[in-house]
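Exercise (ungraded).
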Amino acid sequence: MSTALFDYYQANREKHLQGLFELLRIPSISALPEHKPDIRRAAESLANDLGAMGMKNVEVIEGKEKQNPLIYAEWLEAPGKPTLLLYGHYDVQPVDPLDEWISPPFEPTIRNNNIYARGAVDDKGQVYLLSKAVEGFFKTEGKLPVNVKFLLEGEEEVGGEFIDEYVAAHPDRLKADAALVCDTEFFGPELPTLTTGLRGLVYTELEARAAAHDLHSGQFGGAAPNPMQALAEMITRLKGPDGKILIPGFYKRVKRPTAAELASWKKLPFNEKNFMKKEIGTTALVGEKSFTVLERLWSRPTLEVHGIRGGFTGEGAKTVIPAVGTAKISMRLVPEMNPNEIIRLYKSYVKKITPKGIRTAVRILSSAPASVVSTDSRWIAAGAEALEQVFKKKTVYMRSGGSIPVVGTFQKFLKTPSVMMGFGLPDDNLHAPNEKFHLPNFYRGIETVGRFLEILGG
Amino acid sequence: MSTALFDYYQANREKHLQGLFELLRIPSISALPEHKPDIRRAAESLANDLGAMGMKNVEVIEGKEKQNPLIYAEWLEAPGKPTLLLYGHYDVQPVDPLDEWISPPFEPTIRNNNIYARGAVDDKGQVYLLSKAVEGFFKTEGKLPVNVKFLLEGEEEVGGEFIDEYVAAHPDRLKADAALVCDTEFFGPELPTLTTGLRGLVYTELEARAAAHDLHSGQFGGAAPNPMQALAEMITRLKGPDGKILIPGFYKRVKRPTAAELASWKKLPFNEKNFMKKEIGTTALVGEKSFTVLERLWSRPTLEVHGIRGGFTGEGAKTVIPAVGTAKISMRLVPEMNPNEIIRLYKSYVKKITPKGIRTAVRILSSAPASVVSTDSRWIAAGAEALEQVFKKKTVYMRSGGSIPVVGTFQKFLKTPSVMMGFGLPDDNLHAPNEKFHLPNFYRGIETVGRFLEILGG
């Protein structure tokens, strides 16, 4: 890295940290409509920052009424150099259960060299480090080593509908040689990592309806259908106790990873006992016995129940047979499963297993295919090199069991491959209380992205 | 009925209705701690009323810190006459889902000759009619035809712990020849009914715990145990799709009703299709095929899931594997099942069916045995006669699938049999939105209780 750039990043660590804190204080929760104004504040704060540093054509792009804005910004004054599309999301997950947070989710706090806050690592911390890495070039050289387009979204945690529509509608504006998607994590501490595959997602609500209104379980129990019992029955018919999903045709298109990829995963420092006890805190792992744990997480589809709404769940003893219950159920997809086909199979199977006296309805909240990227492109090579130079360790390759639907969107509409370079750690409590971002990774993330741009520009 | 008493009841209908409205406006929900002050207001209003009419030794009896007060009042100036214990409860169920109420639950409204309000029939309307029936004697004759003790409670909807303790500790004060429990309903409109049996209840919370904290379903799905899936599996192992409860030993002590009782139920005007479509509003009934619907509701035990807490149930798509889930599960008991034995069998079976990676805990929120009363006592005969005289129809006998634990308590600690005479109707929406009390039954309930006292005093 150029000495000036390195010195700039070092000298501005505290300033960058305080800037991130300001962004983290905005509760930009996309799942809860009451946080719409916070979504807007976060978007405007990021857009103002990009404009102030020297990015051009900065725009807060409005979608349809319920959609959250995208942020676009570009700097295209490096003729002959590659064009890089930088992606991250400024929306965050809800914070419940709130009482399990040690410090308030929107009051960022440093403990044990970590930044604790909702969104610290997923993904506001990583969005912010992208912008600060780019700003370093403007401040030290007045220009960037490559052409850069930012595209930041505010709906990643709720399905990312708008970015999908926008990318599909504006391929010329967004076209790039590669995308840098900064929303992933290292395989372990001090183990620089590029992610080369993601699972897809189909997120559904399964509603079971029985009586016309709630019933007294004394008066009606024994003869009236109970939607809670029906959902329990249906859930056990969707996934068996062995982790196998029982929807006919579900596994039909599942493609195993290559032998080389499977062999490389075997070499990763994965300690199953540690994963079980430290990362999860449970007494046993579950799932398909004939696959290793990493395969179950990265290259096998799954089905999970996230919560069941309906009936009485408060304090005390209300004896109600609810009229309706709704289970939030998602499926993770792997290559080459087709989300639309899976939705079709799921809906038709749900109809088949609906118990007597129950009427079911399925709502699809979001869907995205899985994606894999090739490990031998120049973009991946540059990312690996940048990581190695900053972290002084060999870069490893992994997949992620989560979904970053935008990677599939960039591939589909822009034919742009993604470098998934993120700086989280496996125990960062994503989507859970006490989310954190390892402070040194925030600083080194800025340096790595800076170095990545230098390499691509050089 | 004495002409003076009859005329008094007729002349004061509007006054009685307005008095009930005032009581119904107090949101005395016992399941929600924030309504403690309303519980107290309701208790004091009733106690003041009893004192003002002429009852003696009126007392609002305080329990332990979290308990809701009892109301006691007596009038014992009819030597040689029987002593009657009058029971009802002034607490009500929660009101959710609030948006399904046509008029606000605590703003009583008359529509179609019904009083709509939470507690209209269960049980504030019936508590109030007891007191107004008694008041009629004071106003017309200055004395009562029998000795009377009131015992009103404020915890019936949450387990009735305090009344149990209090009755056990004060048998001499409460001793009576019979109790009049006014918290039941008619088998059908214009069909005066005495209830001769009640199911018991064991209400539990089944908690399933897996990870130390909520997990991201992308990162961990496929290998981490999911408490929601575990609860679904356990629920289907507690009760099969045929309605049979699978806890070993559960049916061991179940006693069938006598042949005469079963024969009398066959004569009741029960229309299964009407019950299914009008009262429940469903497309099929469920449960044990080898028993009639009335047997399933009155003389067979059952198990129901009331709600499942945990995970994410709000708007949107949160991809969480919750650390913990809790199912509210109750069992209805019939004679001669023993609640403590059922709790033991349930707990030990839950342990056995707990899936790998899950730690379960069972909490018992309340329990009470079933109770049956003999149809050939003089108390039942007097109740039947009073009903017939006011309603001009032959009284029928039924059981109820619900629980009135206090009936068992009176039997156990006072050796006092209960006459369960209540004036609700089957479609009164107990424990549900739009609870109602048929207005003519409120007025005739007052007359019937008055006539009942006259008959016993005569």
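Further reading is listed at the end of the chapter. For now, observe: Chain B touches chain A through 99 residues (CB under 8 Å). Chain B has a mean pLDDT of 95.
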